[in-house]
Amino acid sequence: MVRNVALVTGASRGVGRGIAVALGAAGWKVWVTGRTSRTDRTGRRPSGEDPSHLPGTVEDTAEAVTAAGGDGVAIVCDHRDDDQVRAVVERLEAAGEGLDVLVNNVWAGYERLNAGAWQEWNAPFWDQPIALWDAMFGGGVRAHYVATALCAGLLRRRPGGLVVTVSMHVGATHEPQYAVAYSVSKAADDRLALATAAAFEPYGVASVALYPGLVRTEGVLQFAEHLDLTRSQSPEGVGRVVAALAADPDRMARSGQAWSVDELAARYGVDTAS
Question: What is the rounded CA–CA span in Å between residue 61 and residue 228?
Fold first, then answer.
């Protein structure tokens, strides 16, 4: 029996970890990447943008995947470095097990916020550092593009593949409380999902953008006093939606679109709160 295989980027903690663990619970082999490892808690981040006070490493996530019933494999990778990403893909190629799902979750745009810059995050765009834009595009949108491009060969070889790019509803409809860089970068992710869906369609590979709601990640919970978490989602709840989408035989009908976690949860009967 051929085992389903996924690659989840940026999975040391947060939504990436939740998705990886949920796929593990569904019996998948999950390769997880991230910069934070047990041997390097800093993740080689620029000074002043270090969220290493938050728990979680790629090794922790891989072990949680295995404990949930899957097979977790940790790879330390900085997705801003194309050579490191190529090395990840080469490891997948060498394993000879193919690739069914790529989850583009890595996102450098939250680093400054996770490091405590709440006021900066909520400031007008002209008062935000240009580095925030660079992080969202370099360590976010560009990282998603590179991972998708380098994994395309593996995905095309196994019909029924899926690419999930974690985005945000602000990419579709701008809301005043969200800053310009965040809105524009998420819109770019949505277009990436649409454009790659068209290229992948002849190969039977679906590509979607996914909009989580407010998720109780480690980074979010440190700002709980500022937030209403009443209808929030768990990272594992988001992951169960991804697992359900991956198992949907009609997933090509969802391709090229942006879907909210709530929409898909209702379609598949998934609990996202717990």
Answer: 27
